[in-house]
Amino acid sequence: MSEALKRINSLSPSRANDFKTCPLLYRYKTIDRLPEPPSTDALRGTIVHEALERIYDLPQGTRAIEHAHNLMDAAWANAIIEDASVVDLFADQEQIDIWLSSGRELINRYFQMEDPNNLEPAEREVHVEFELSNGLLLHGYVDRLDQAVTGELRIVDYKTGKSPKAGYEEKAFFQLKFYALVIWRSRGVLPKVLKLIYLGNSETLPKEIDESDLLAVERSISAIWLAIRKNHLSGNWPATPSRLCDWCSFKQFCPEFGGTLLPLPLEATSETLS
Description:
Blueprint: H1 3-8, E1 10-11, H2 13-21, H3 23-31, H4 40-54, H5 65-82, H6 93-113, E2 123-131, E3 137-147, E4 153-159, H7 169-187, E5 193-198, E6 203-208, H8 211-234, H9 266-273
Parallel strand pairs: 1-3, 4-5
Antiparallel strand pairs: 2-3, 3-4, 5-6
Helix pairs in contact: 2-3, 4-5, 4-6, 5-6, 7-8
């Protein structure tokens, strides 16, 4: 089995959303493995997430905002060590300082929404995976798992952006339902509550779920995968224009925007022909 086919036979929430947004976007990111240019927003999300994960390494009663700020600064320093070019995303040190300040503000909002000294997560940044009976491997990373004394699980996800507009909440919960399905199938425990924490506008979205919700998302995921396999066999990955195209990194390779469609990678082409 080729590496491309292995990637097609596994699915994460982000890759599923890519395909739902635009099959060509999915192809470029999953099959062609085209790199996306780094962004300051994504980088800020990474270092803020790391700070919120590591703050729970400290004993209860000592998890102060100042410590979280220091953890974020350390995450930024590590990012530079791993890839010195990240500083090129900024014009000068003043811009970096403003950007870091915006990250600290997100952490401040988190402490206003939750007191980490009153929480003791069961697991943090945990990788979950499960292979469905049809051969599809589901996987992803959960920001936080809380467990009640009764054993019930709550899935928590941090978002550094703003909460969705009214009527779009269900789309936002797809990611957490995906994780809940994987945990249910792999551990035999059905998470009861999903919780989205939007630091961009200090809003929390909780949602209770049951078995019917997870069976529905399982059917939806399987349907997405069947559509992906169909496109792979045909070699046809159509573009789906939408407002999200404004943020796409691959417009120069999209016929909808006058770009030149890239040829399929050789291994994917041979699988299509076979």
